[in-house]
Amino acid sequence: MAVLAVAWMAGAAETQPSTNLVPTVITADKMEYDYEEQIAYLRGRVVVRDERGSLAADNATVYFERDKSGDVAAAASAEGANFQRVVAYGKVKMQSGDRIAVADKAVWNRTESKIVLTGGPPMVKQGSSYIKAERITYDVKTQRFEFYPSPEIVFQASEEQKQRFIQ
Predict the structure, then answer these.
(1) Does the pTM exceed 0.85?
(2) What is the DSSP letter of 87?
(3) Of 13, 92, 100, 115, which sees the most CB atoms within 10 A?
(4) What is the pLDDT of residues 96-153, one digit of tens each?
(5) Could you tell me if 72 and 64 are in contact, meaning their C-beta atoms sit under 8 angstroms apart?
């Protein structure tokens, strides 16, 4: 069943063409798979890494799609198993380059191609600057963030940058 989890992540990138699969490595202290419900439970020090970035969390739950007959194995393809939703929770940290997002919970809805961060409050940091809000939504396809309600922006500017704003 661990192969299903790896296949899920390998096929997860919606922006990657099927001929250029990106290798993904998933580690956790423990994994359980409920075949009847078609849910994978990753427990303890969950880490997902590939060339696009990484995700770390205390735990994660993966909800797989079923084909018309209800069979997850038939829903899997050469590109990886299809999933509907991934929920990561507990000290969630997503990193890509110098951008880091932290939250208590992250929900990736594949159908909508969005990741919603909540709890903590969630924040996106780049260097010492950050934006936080009660809820942060990231659109995977457009690579756009939405911060709401009550976003707070803290911009740490160098002296040179500050002088540009003053003059």
Answers:
(1) no
(2) E
(3) 92
(4) 888 999 999 999 898 898 999 999 999 999 888 999 999 999 998 898 999 999 999 9
(5) yes
The residue extents of the domains of the chain are 2-166
Nearest Cα neighbor of 148 from 103, 116, 125 is 116
Phi, psi of 156, rounded to the nearest 5 degrees? -95, 105
In which residue are the tokens 């202290």 written?
A: 29
Cβ burial 87-103 (10 Å sphere, 16+ → b, else e): bbbeebebeeeeebbbb
For residue 72 the two structure tokens come to 């997850």
Single-letter amino acid code for the residue at 69: S
- Tell me which amino acid residue 149 is: P
- Beta strands 25-27 and 114-118, pairing class: unpaired
Would you give the distance in Å from CA 19 to the centre of its chain?
A: 22
Give the distance, in angstroms, between the CA of residue 76 and the centroid of all CA atoms in the same chain: 20
Whole-angstrom Cα distance, residue 165 to residue 60? 43
Q: Which residues contact 88 (CB under 8 A, 6 or more apart)?
A: 46, 55, 57, 59, 60, 105, 106, 107, 108
CATH superfamily of the 2-166 domain = Lipopolysaccharide (LPS) transport protein A like domain (2.60.450.10)
